Amino acid sequence: MARVNFEGVSKAFDGALAVDDLHLDVHDGELLVLLGPSGCGKTTVLRMVAGLEDPTAGTVSIGDVIVNDVEPKDRDVAMVFQSYALYPHMTLRRNIEFPLRQQKVPAAERARRVDEAAGTLGLGDLLDRKPGQLSGGQRQRVALARAIVRDPQVFLMDEPLSNLDATLRIQTRADIVSLQRRLGTTTIYVTHDQVEAMTMGHRIAVMRDGRLQQVAAPQDLYERPANTFVASFLGSPGMNLVPASVDGAVVTVDGTRVELPAGPAVAAGPVTVGVRPEAASLAPEGIAATVVLVEQLGAEAHVICALVDGTRVVVRQENRAARPDLGDAVAIRVDPAQLLLFDADTGARLELGR
Amino acid sequence: MPATDAAVRPPSSAPAAHRPPRRRHRRLRLVLRYALLSIGAVVVLFPLYMAVVNSLLAPSQIAHQPPPFFPLHPQWGSYRKAWTEGDLAVYLRNSAIQTTVIVAGQLVTSVLAAYAFAFLEFPLKRTLFVVFLMTLMIPFEVTIATNLSTVSSLGWFNTFPGLTVPFLATGFGTFLLRQAFLQIPRDLREAAQLDGYGHLRFLWSVAVPLARPALAALGVFSFLSAWNQYLWPLLVTGNDNSVRTVQIGLKQLINTQLDQINVSLAGTVIAVVPLLVLLVVFQKQLVRSLTSGAVK
Amino acid sequence: MSALRSRRHREWGLAYLLLAPALLVFAVFTFYPFLRNFKLALYQNPPYPGLPAHYVGLHQVGSVLASTSFHQSLVSTLLYVVMVVPVGLIGGLLLAVAAHKAIRGMAWFRLIFSSTVVTSVAVAAVVFGTLMDPVVGLLPWLGINPHPAILENPTWALPAVSLIAVWQFLGLSFVIMTAGLQSLPDEVLEAARLDGAGGWTMFWRVTVPLLSPTLFFGLVVGTIYAFQSFGQIDILIGPQNSQFTHTDVLLYSVYQALSIQDNPGVAAVLSIVLFTILLVFTLVQLRFLERRVTYAGN
Question: Where are the domains positioned within chain C?
Answer without folding.
Answer: 61-292
